[in-house]
Amino acid sequence: MTLERQIIFKTKGVKQTRSLGRKLGKLFQKGYVILLNGDLGAGKTAFTQGIGEALKVESQVNSPTFVLMSVHEGIIPLYHADLYRLTNATDVEDLDLVAQSSEGVLVIEWPERGIEVLPKDHVFLDFKTLEIEDERSITVTVVGEKYGEMAKRLESYG
Amino acid sequence: MNILGIESSCDETAAAVVSDGRIIHSSVVASQIDLHKSTGGIVPEVAARAHLQAIVPIIEQAMLDAACNWDDIDAIGATNGPGLPGALLIGFNAARGLAYSRNIPLIPVDHIEGHIRACWLNESPPPLPALALVVSGGHTELIRIEENNTFVRLGSTRDDAAGEAFDKVARLLDLPYPGGPPLSALAETAETRQLKLPRAWLRGTNDFSFSGLKTAVLNLLKEKDHPASAEIAWAFQESVCDVLAKKTRNLAEKENVKSVLVAGGVAANRRLREVLSEHISIELRIPPPNLCTDNGAMIAAAAYAHQNNTVNAESPLDIEPTAMRKKRLRKIDSRL
What we know:
The complex is a heterodimer. By secondary structure, chain A is α/β, with parallel strands linked by helices. Helices cover about 30% and strands about 30% of the residues of chain A. A seven-stranded mixed sheet of chain A has the order 1-7-6-2-5-4-3, covered by helices on one side. In chain B, α4 crosses α11 (about 295-305) and α8 runs parallel beside α9 (about 270-280). Chain B is about 45% helix and about 20% strand. Chain B is α/β, with parallel strands linked by helices. Chain B starts with a strand and ends with a helix. The interface between A and B is large, with 33 and 41 residues.
């Protein structure tokens, strides 16, 4: 049976979203696959900047929409992919993101472009904008034994 | 010195023959934009295949238009990054193959520098030191160019590139890809021009941020009685142009440069050109729109500036597709 755990966070403003990224980023390890789902402007890139801070990356974490994937050197490398411009799973498969990023943490924005070809075990974050301006709900779903230890620590945050 | 410039980093397959980094004898561009319009974005494998089909005819056409043969070509310059890996490989390896088989020196070119070097085409060299604003789908950068031609990056976007913001807001407004031209056209039709959208100044830094502006448009569109799309498009464009122009002007003053160079696809935006010329009082160089978007002539111009940096076409060479920002900065700095 696949281990699955879910926990919901709320943030107000981009700073809090970034700081949540920093907090969770400290739990991420080599080989982790983090999927960030949510509309334009939901806070995915800001959250990834927080992960970058946690991994102490040297470079500016900005939107990789154009280049599809950027690599940032840190305590462990951060592979930041963005599938926004892709349209189907075959194109996502062709990028071979997982093989390229096995030495670091792989963060994927717009994973729905090819969810069927991305690893079944992953950490899935769903970003939703709420009625009140600037407020976001971020639902973290942890799938797979590999992330069991992380899930436990995550629950202590909840 | 005649240089064949080859570009294939993203949507365009392009080749050009340029003398002395300045006189354009031919410039041929095959755009895949129509190919990507239906999907609202680029498809890497489709792009790579399209580059593969276009590259040889495009190079042949550039040679034909310039009325030259291979003996007339003194060097080949080709983009080796940043860009889409599959796309870069096609143009760069075509250049390698030609250089090797015809024994012509090969010069790898940085795509961003290529954009800036478009300001050297058709004109006398701009007075240095200069400040360059590079604005495109993938980049928003402020780069200082020293008198010895060293490039130093002073600022860049912290989230979305300016062109990317245009594309994404265009999508929010149900406009086609690429978003810049249709969004500007829509903005022109705005009846009232009262709406004001936020500007991220990031004071005390030379960096940009366009993500908050995108979110502001998103929030606005959620409102029941939101302003007409044309007014939103107008306010959005004003916000982007205002920030780009003022931050560029302020840095040019602080850096005490002699000219401001603007390059990249977004530099083709009419309103941006207008706002920049209102703000910049020193020499302002913005290439004509067809040299702002990706082309081979700018790559040839950059290769001319690096004519001593030839590489051995026989040995395997790496393209540099992803922008590893810090490394790239060092690389740009070390280029003389």
